[in-house]
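Students often ask why we bother encoding 3D structure as a string. The short answer is that it lets us treat folding as translation between two languages. Here is a chain of 165 residues written in the first language.
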Amino acid sequence: MGKMGVVPGSFDPVTNGHLDIIRRASRVFGEIRVCVLNNSSKNPLFTVDERIRLIHEATAGIDNVKVESYSGLLVDYAKGVGATAIVRGLRAVSDFEYEMQITSMNRVLEEEIETFFMMTNNQYSFLSSSIVKEVAKYGADTSDLVPPVVEQALREKYNIKEIRK
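And here it is in the second language, the structure alphabet:
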């Protein structure tokens, strides 16, 4: 239990699927670092600081979770904080193909850091931040998709006064 795992992602925004992986990983590793990656090729809805705040609030009840950001290579971050593992959630076979490429490159760059794949809970297998943003933009109910703090932040970003049920 003394080992540290890193759960990386853009988390724009954090979803219940992300939180499921974070919670489950927190039971396997002594410490979890949620690393908000600042991906310059994406046009995020939330700033890095907003994403960190939302994740921090959503994971407040999980004592061994810390939330940080990083803009370089993930393996450099993991090595720098003393992590032994990267934890990635998988929804479908298509996720595995992409993650396998990233994992293989990470092993070339830093062979001491292992990657652990966790299958997402079936109820979140369709869920992505992109889908959440799309439905939230049109005022649809996202209460089953994201934690309440994120639901409120989405309403504010999209200036939604009333949720369509």
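Translate back mentally: Strands lie at 4-9, 31-37, 65-70, 85-90, 114-119. Keep this in mind for the problem set.
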